[in-house]
Known about the structure:
Layout: H1 3-24, H2 28-52, H3 57-82, H4 88-95, H5 97-112, E1 120-122, H6 127-144, H7 147-165, E2 170-172, H8 179-184, H9 186-201, H10 206-235, H11 239-249
Antiparallel strand pairs: 1-2
Amino acid sequence: MxxxxxxxxVLNLFCGFMSIINADAQNLEQASxxxxxxxxxxxxxxxxxxxxxxxxxxxxxxDSLADLVSFGVAPSFILYKAFFxxxxxxxxxxxxxxMIFGALRLARFNAQLVGFDKAYFSGVPVPIPAxxxxxxxxxxxxxxxxxxxxxxxxxxxxxxxxxxxxxxxKYDTTPKFNKREVKxxxxxxxxxxxSVILIAVTKGEGLFAFCLFYISTGIFRSxxxxxxxxxxxxxxxxxxxxxKLKLKSN
Length: 250
């Protein structure tokens, strides 16, 4: 049974390779679709590993290698072939950021891994930027967005997504949808179900919006916690400490 999760991981890796081949042939939509296929296989290998109880260090390392190709190299190459090829060395550097920071993100994850179940991710998980890029090219690039707006989004994705991957923002993991998980995290479970319905109803177009929403949750959570920390610490000060703080500010 232990080989089954690895089989899904290999299929993930193969889809990344097919994405690169199609991007090189300027078939950007098909290249983007293969990244989505890779995302499905990446999700299933984790589900199968937990279900069969075959999670292992080997599986983690193989998964990271596959993710680097499918969610690092492939989206970077799509960005290059679609837009940045016209900007010489500067374009190559910008297009490569998702790949480079994806590798850093995966290395950090593996180095800090303790056990196989996580309550949250530190930084945007590597598949999310790749799915963001692929859903953008599938449904919005020079379609729902005009050329000028598309260019703005490409620059934003090429710079912001890599930085968010190595940030310390906390992001929720995918719910397991068992009784315990639903009971402990009902809001998260409902949001995931509603998001799946939205993506299905919009025939995939809602995927890009979902990615932006997920990315914003970590930023919002960090901002909220920082505000609580600042104002909460002031509330907990003793009268003497408050007076000293006022004197310092004057």
